[in-house]
Specification:
single chain, about 180 residues, mainly alpha, Arc Repressor Mutant, subunit A, 2 domains, 7 helices
Amino acid sequence: MNNSIKQSFTNTEDLVARAHRRATGEELGVIRINLLIKHCSCLIADAMSDLLKPYGLCYKSYLIMVMMYSRDDAINPSELCDSMGETRSNMTRLCDELVSRNLAQRVTNASDRRRIDLSLTDQGLVLIQKVLPLLRERIKQIYALLGDTLRNQLEEGLQGLLLAVEDSRRAWNHED
């Protein structure tokens, strides 16, 4: 791990640990896992953004383009919000940027003329077909460092964590 990256994580970990000791008298324990997941997620997004910067894209814009590319028809911005966990205002800003760069276009929905959907332009198609393989290769390089066994264990563990979080949220929502 790069010293500045490790130092950044160590600083965050130290501050959060102090707050937990102050509020609960306990050490971090499993809270450290949350910090590691968040830190890794940010670093991966930064690595992807670094690769996308020469193309004038950020990672979120790229993901929007991937979702549009995955569809044979146009996609509704609300569906993009739900898929990405973004606010409507941020999604509007990101989509406006893609439209202004002629990478995406707004189209009237065929079955509901009041609804405006989004699709890639020809220029957007060319760009996503160029950058998607590059990002895929970068992700493969990142995870290759783990080796097959650890990567499979990580994937299995994160799938289990996803289910546990969903179950916990359902249980908490029923308590209210």
